[in-house]
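step=predict obj=Oxygen-insensitive NADPH nitroreductase n=245
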Amino acid sequence: MNPTINLLKSHRSIRKFKDQQIPRQLLEALIQAGQSAATSNHVQAYSIIHVVNPANRQRIAELAGGQPYVANSSDFLVFCADMKRSTDAAERAGAEVVRGMTEQLLVASIDAALMAQNVLIAAESAGLGGCYIGGIRNNPQDVSDLLKLPDNVYPVFGLCLGYPDQNPEVKPRLPLAAILKQDYYDDAEDQALVARFDDTMARYYSQRTGSNKSTNWSEQLKPLFTSKLRPHMKAFLNKRGFGLK
């Protein structure tokens, strides 16, 4: 192990923050670290909205399902998949651009995710903590309107950042054998591995500081697959100019 690997393996979601502001110079350094992430064909198909206005942050907290840390973290960033800037640039260079390709949606979403993970890792290396907010996709049109996002740009997720005011345990991950497969996809052992992991997660949840509950990994998954999760996203993305072709 080395310090970088140890840092990556120690990740926790932080939802309670000290009343301490991240220095602007440090915040900008984190964003620059994010820009160094891999990006498909150097497109850099992302934009980040730094939401500073308290009323807007409170509104996003409500739109995201009532998540107060959106409003009370030091800084809140919305990572957007952005195909507008690059397609506009190609068009100005003389290309007859084709918009709305599904691959453009994938490229922009992946670029935004890779960039954000770099930002969070850099933040954790500086003693900060963070929490991703996928809940902004509960009401993506309202969030887009609030942030004045143009067509060919959509909000993928938010990220709360700040100085941690809690020290939660590291949440266990699936056994390596369940996700690392050699040469081809072989799930012969997956049922047994998942059963073992359910026992691990049941112990974790029963012993977790401050929020004990009786459940396991498989039980936690049930709501994700027994209802239509955010069924509005397809129409929303089509309206934004993504995933039409």
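step=describe
Residues 172-227 form one domain.
step=end
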